[in-house]
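Example (one chain per record):
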Amino acid sequence: MLAVRTIAFIGGGNMAEAIIRGLLKEEVGIGICVAELLPARREQLTTLFPSVRVVDDAAEAARWGEVVVLAVKPQQAAGALDALEPVITSEKLIISIMAGIRAASIEEALAPGSRVVRAMPNTPALVGAGATAISAGRKATPGDLAVAEQLFALVGYAVQVDEKQMDGVTALSGSGPAFVCAFIEALADAGVKNGLPRDVAARLATQTVLGTARMVHETGDHPVVLREKVTSPGGTTIAGLHALETGAFRGTVMSAVDAACHRSKELSGK
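Predicted structure:
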């Protein structure tokens, strides 16, 4: 159980909503407040979560929360941190899910001694199947990391990494869902090309990716081992794998992650 009593979210977007859903689903008994600038979104959040306090003032929410989750867009970081600086003390734990914003930048904008944990969740958190990496700022304690890990475990899987690895995390698990969606789309299109109805091809492609991911996760076997189990000598699968190798499938995927990692470093000013 989370060892905190109140959590404030600065920004009420999709990721904040996913975490709130996880908290409410687990019935952890924690007070939740969300600061959201857009009136329409505030109204929507109030309807979705009647037990959650929804306000328009970031400083008000941060003053109230024992843990403050920075969930605004990276380009809004400077304005949000300026608004929060007067009310953030070393007694509060700051958890940032702002992509590309380093913990040191947040620490410099807040009072000395501010405790910051940086987190990189991904969009499958919206269905409770997220993958989140967390890293400690200079003043964050092991207890702070434990709180952050417990929080993100409510919406999937959470793991601790060094902050220098965050660009790789952003590229792999942050951008990865888009790459997987592109693969599902291509797999479904191939089914249509070979005579399947669109809805059937889409369902089969989606379930195939979902089931295979579960199989890798639950068996603990290396993907190569599981791949070999469905690759019969002279069969259909090896013919398809040969086509993937001819098209540099694995190299292309690795290049996609490399490109995303490079862009993450550019955005963070490295």
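Caption: The domain at 6-163 is CATH 3.40.50.720 (Rossmann fold).
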